[in-house]
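Q: Two folds, back to back.
A: First:
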Amino acid sequence: MSQTAEANVKGENVIPTSRFRSFFRQLLKNKVAFSAFVFLVVIHVGVFLGPFIWTVNPDAVDPANALASWSAEHPLGTDDLGRDVLSRMLYGGQITLLVGLGSMIFTVLIGGLIGSAAGYFGGWIDTVLMRFTEAMLSIPNFFLALVALTVLGKSPMMVVLVIAFTSWMEIARVVYGETLKWKETEFVEASNAMGSSSMRTLIKHVIPQTIPSIIVASTLGIAWAILTESAISYLGLGIQPPTATWGNMLQNAQQYIWTAPILGVLPGVAITLVVLAYNFLGDGLRDMLDPKHLGK
């Protein structure tokens, strides 16, 4: 193998690693964001791998053992139907976190498509899409989600889609602004001069430049989706029992707030900490990916 080929192979192996290390070093400098990142990793690993260790059925009912206190058999006690609270926290956390992730994915797809198309093509496409975005922003999204779930159903997938379709507007505005900035750059003009189609130029050269901003907005969007799902479930209009989520666990626990407060404290604290961690991580990523901070 020639020296040039060896250098290319080495370069392909070194560049991604150095970028990851640089990103990790930047994250380490922001103590709050790094702590939030570590916390989220621990929570996600615990929630998704915990059921392989703690194999108690979260839907197993034992009325004779209802509202039992902590014990070796039930480390976090049982609820009003005698179901193991630890098991339900683990499985409920899976649903809550997956709803947040799924909603974020659909939000990015919808908002990214609308924002990039409006920003790059301009003209009447820009006018129609961005006026539609502004119209959606003027609607109280939470109440729109409640109405949509009442009409369309309350399955987990429907909850994901409703949250996504009522929260894509911020992503669209972020991508729109980034697209307007990058479409005037020299490499985009060079791509057009070489005969590339508008769609190819948009997908290959413009959208990749918006990814840092999308990552930041997506991180904050996951927090919003989790909080929205929890609020909807708390009102009884989200994912329905016996499927556990932290939101409907909180709703079921409200009538036992004085007799068994732990039933409400556990999911409430979990929701609060996860949402705060995603917000702190998003704020830290925004500082890291700000051009004024790059290279420091």
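A: Second:
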Amino acid sequence: MSSGTVPSGVVVLTDRRLVGAGGLARVVAGAVGQGVRWVVLREKDLPRAERAALAADLRAILGDVGGTLVVAGPDPLGGDAVHLPAAGPYPPPPLPLVGRSCHNQAELDRLTTEHYATVSPVHLTRTKPGYGPPLGTEGLRKLIESSPVPLLALGGVETPEQVTACVDAGATGVAVLGAIMRAKDPAETAAKLCSAFQEAVTPELTQTRREPTRVPTTGLRPTVPTQGSSLTARSGHGRPQPPRATEESP
């Protein structure tokens, strides 16, 4: 993790109770293979030794691609990145990367040395039914505009369209739990969400890729074959050119 880096893109939150055969490591590996570079380890009900062992396994997966594991709670489990609940602790621990869960403007106003925050729920979520009310895209936008730190959109983000809306609202990324933990094919789901994020943050580049290059068909002068490369023949470089009064802009 480089200095000054905060989570972005599709950030996966873990819940081993929701995954199918193969366990949590398989799901995380599939998501990482499709572009996920940030994972938040929850699993707070596990004994510390088991949770630390799981953290080591996930760090190994992320380390192969330069990704980062963030641990939920004040104990980094041997790492240097944590994500804290809104309730505390205050002040935040002096670690290289500290995030916090927030839900409204009052909680954002309490931030001090945190580097980023999540805001939730953006939409209704099956993980925490009845938790809300949902912020919606406009509520998310307002919090982002007033936030002192970069924000991740969290809660009910399950589709590429929702990812795009969150990015358009100004989110630096989306934090996803159920969409990947419950997926029949976590890798495929991660690929779709990561692709939506990349397209949302690079719309001009994406549009250029989609549109075929148009070659003008009028106003062209025939080229005169000359010795050398075709580029030389087309551009006229390497042969005398008539004098010009002024130079044209490229």
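Q: And?
A: The chain has one domain: 9-209.
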